[in-house]
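Ticket #904: bound-state structure for iron/sulfur cluster.
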Amino acid sequence: MTNTIDDLETAGAILVIGSNTTEAHPIIGLRIKKAVMRNDCRLIVAEPKHIRLCYYADRWLQHKPGTDVALLNGLMNVIIEEDLYDHEFVAERTEGFEELAELVKEYTPEKVSGITGVAADDIREAARTFAAADNAAICYAMGITQHTTGTDNVVSVANLSMLTGNVGRPGTGVNPLRGQNNVQGACDVGALPNVYTGYQSVTDPDIRKKFEEAWGVALPGKPGLTATEMMDAAAKGDIKAMYIVGENPMLSDPNLKHAGEALEKLDFLVVQDIFLTETAELADVILPSASFAEKEGTFTNTDRRVQRVRKAVESPGEAKPDAWIVSEISKRMGYEMPSLEPAEVMDEIAQVTPQYGGISHARLDEGVTIHWPCPDSESPGTPILHTKYFTRGKGWFCPVPYVEPAERPDEEYPLVLTTGRVLWQYHTGTMTRKSEGINELDPHGKVWISPADAERYGVENGVTAVVSTRRGDIEIEAMVTPRIQEGVIFVPFHYAESPANVLTNNVVDPVSKVPEYKVSAAKVKPA
Amino acid sequence: MDQIKVEIDGSEFTAPAGSTILEIARANGVYIPTLCYDPRLTPYGACRLCLVEVEGARALLPSCYARAEDGMKIQTTNEKLERIRKTLVELLVSDHPMECMGCEKSGRCELQELAQRYDITESGYAGEKHEYIEFSENPFVTRDYNKCIMCGRCIRICREVQGVGVYDFVNRGFEAVPGTPFERPMQETPCEFCGQCISTCPTGAIKARPYEGDGRVAARDILRNACAYFHMSEEEMTKALGLEEWKVRTTCAYCGCGCQLDLHVIDNRIVEVTSPLMEGAGQGNLCVKGRFGYDFVGSRERLTRPLIRKGKKFVETDWDTALDLVAKKLGGTKKKSGADSIAVLASARITNEENYLIQKFARAGIGTNNVDHCARL
Ligand code: SF4
Ligand code: SF4
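RESOLUTION: The complex was predicted; output attached.
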């Protein structure tokens, strides 16, 4: 997030696009509701299904999955046509406005209405509401990124935010809501194939030299494979061994059949986890690790706030912290990492990572709130980014045309399948599905289907249906509901017994390599 | 923001304009009793305990409601105010089963604290008492309206903060009590089981079902009874007994909001999860996963020993054997097919420190940049 969770409350308007916030990020959902209920914030929700936030919205734009770029271009078309954009901001802090204006000219509300299914007047009104607010924020989640056009979607969101000058003040900004507790932190500290900590490129010789000195060995300069590419490479036999820590690709990867074949093909698979996950079942060695409640450390949340994790209980049996395990393996492979306490590891991170330069356990334990970047121990951190300039100086408008999703409905697979989360469960359910009470309230997954489609395909509410795509099929209870539009079905991906990702498409966005979870062509029939 | 100056009990304080008297008092450590107040809610002014005297004002003012004005002179305590407060507490106690021994809220109960402060053991206003049955029809929230003091905090937090509105006052007059529509079980209402109502209830009327049955509950009961017997809060009691580790502050391990949690631990098990008021993203609010989703930590299904595949089965082994095997296999693969034939998946679930070490291991230990995690998935 460019801004903080706290300052969302001060926004005059919020556009939520591709995020079922109250279920996937409940507490941010509360802040948005508070902004609406107490501070007269005007909320625009752009989302294919009727989510709870729609009850709080001024306007709900029910666009078809995968048409986000068209919708955003349509909003910008109105804002430019009606001269509602922030001239001063555009002139002083951005480049490329002419090109953007040129492109979005085509995207008249009428044309966009044809693509997205949203009424032209709703597009006009939403654009006016957003542009009229003194401070307007945009929140999005995987509904924006999990498309083959995910990067385009993100760029379009940024365009809209800059066009209206909503950058660098409380209650504004571009706010991706990160889905997992420490996905932000994992990226920050270099668990990515192309960068070291703090997004420092592995291909930059100076940076590589810095890390070679810090770590005392020569380092490879070729960027590595992303998670989805690893699976493809394993399937081809190029990756021969894998070490998987605390992840469950056998439920979370797109096209599980493909993922399963890839992992089966490995010569050697080590899985380190707290439970015997679907992935661990394929392993050659399973290493039992400590849960978050059994160790010291930090997580970085979605608004870049670094927060402490503290040990509350002892691990069961011989389970060990991941840090210990990886250090032991490394040592046995001939690279001995100094054995350090978590606080000392953070000091090492601070040394090599400009954004974390001033972060230490000691400071956090004193109760200081720190949002990175925090370059030194005097710095209070940076709750709001881009207050004076962007990372590259001026903001660059990058016009993006609308491109259709990779797979479109056809005669055989007439429906659009989209996937996501529900309130009760978390990710692949490794943790929440072990909770008795939660499973009493939410025992299994359900496919959402509109009354019209249910009728057409002979599917009944509360009865098991079969959902199929070109990748495979699953059995799952049907929930017939007007909350989803005709032609679209929704399957949550938490449930091992009806794994949505058997169905999803493993095509990826060419830049971000994020798979297109949100759009697959599908069909349903009674079981 | 404009600043104002006010005088409270003879001391001068500065505060942002628009603050209530209570907010200024609390921010500066001046005690004013309250029961219907919660900083997460809009002021309600029902319990009247927070009345204060303002120089020149015609009547006593509820400090939770009344905005402070520049130059105001405020008294938070004097004989008259204390007499009113004592009477109000006595009235509440008169319709409350003051059996603090055995009450789950003992040591954290706001009514208990006030009764102790005003030295009220039994009310002089003995009258008719309510008798309700306890509702425990769902896995998480138990309601015992015999202990309800009608502060409306549950109704308000569900409506104002959660935006759901499960509860309202049902019945009228003496019989009025918060409840669900038509006494429906909570799982048949739109309840999201966030537990915000539990977190705000000042008494033992709404409470969390414990994570653990058996002996740990007994241990907790002993602590609560001790709080009741010695007139101490849970905070004071655990400190006195050197049980500070009873409550551990940490960060939620589910979504990216990063709510702050207090894990309550007895005998190496998490028995309850709460969130510190007005801290972190949640400000004391949580969702169902954060508040009730932590039984997995103590699950019997946790992996406890390294396992090695033997044919179709896994057999237990010791750490040395497992680690040696992993190092040998990874080392062998590297030698035979090169470092780039190995891939490492770190995790969005583990700590920064651990992710750092894992990517360092991949790059410096194995010699490949094939390291990623499921950020995209
Ligand atoms: S648990 Fe949450 S949603 Fe349910 S009644 Fe309490 S406050 Fe309302
Ligand atoms: S309590 Fe709920 S909203 Fe808060 S971090 Fe945990 S999962 Fe997210």
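RESOLUTION NOTES: The mean pLDDT of chain A is 92.
TICKET STATUS: resolved
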